[in-house]
Amino acid sequence: MRVIVVGAGEVGTHIADSLDQDHEVVVVDRDERRVDSITYEHDVMAIEGDGTSGQMLDEAGIDEADLVVASTDDDATNIVVCGAAKTVDDPFTIARVKKTDLLRTWERSDGAFGVDVMVSTDLHTAETIVDIVNLPGARDVDSFANGLVRMAEFEISSDSPVAGKTVADADRFESLTFAALIRDDDVVVPTGETVIEAGDELVVIGSVENTREFAGTLSPLPTLEEADEIVIVGGSEIGYQTARLFEEHGLESRLVERDPDRARELAEQLPKTLVLESDATDIDFLVREHVGESDIVIAALDSDEKNLLVSLLAKRIGVERTLGVVEYGEYVDLFETVGIDVAVNPRWVTAEEITRFTREQRTENLAILEHDRAEVLEFEVDDESLLVDTPIREAIAELPDGVVVGAITRDGELITPRGETRVQRGDHVVVFAETPVIDVVAAAL
Prior knowledge:
alpha/beta; globular; 26% strand; single chain
């Protein structure tokens, strides 16, 4: 498959990296430094130029392209790229946009703008925030099989009740699989005798109920339904969408916005949200409004540094859990080390969503873990699958190391996989695999 990616930022680079082993990938970007960087680091063709130009698309081989991904930081540019591609040929087009209004317009009309799939950065980021808030202590959360299966990642602290225990002792849940331990630079696929260590990142896959119960054993923090007080700092589009989603869950949050006009606009659009016009970096305001009594503070300002500051201030006055939007991926680990419990990077969220569409057609859903070190994928099993009518233990032995079948759904029912479980045609299977072998796994399953 020939893929043209317009935009060599974090999103475009990640997509190119995920496809370059098995597909012919061409990346177009106006920035010479980005072009040089991606050429040096990845096995792709990179071209300096304007992706909205028909001549540039011709140079990139648009007449032979199967897929065009428009992933620049400008909504209008991405839409024009898709439209231009459709005037030359009929590749499948994916556009990344920030404005949710554009997504709504596109949804109301089939094939609007020449875009086959539109991915809204702000909306997907807000959805990710709500999913993480709803599972106490989780660093990453994703749903599979129409919501029947939940994947979650937890950081194991030294005082965690599972630290120092074997997997066999820790996993007391009927519908839960301990899929992996991410330890330093290694991905460990655990056996029952594997000891869970402090500092590990534990990935579990299972039913919604058991995943939530397990989260409850790790953290005393309340779930979304149990939360008494949620504070959102920043009336950005991400902040607004997060508050709107909370309202859909029947929750009333508080949203702090400094700009009077924006605060007034938000108050009109969010009838169940208390909008406060103030500067949330003012610690006197935070104390006066009893923000320290909140269950969680979500920092969604327009600056990574401000989001870090708000999180540090919130921690100082007693907030147990903070979640911050971090635009620059290189800041994520640093900010989580010094003051934000969970950092959500909109570009990574968007790259994950777009990558799902760039996989082979049988991939129903996908989650990317630990900056692309591992993936969790959902497949619908067909007659060609290695798993069909074969005990899982035997099928997995035919695959590279680092592969775990985490869950199976059949006719709307969840099946917890065991060594002797046999998968049937039409089942949906959720699989954990290390990124280097993911294409082999996808082809076999």
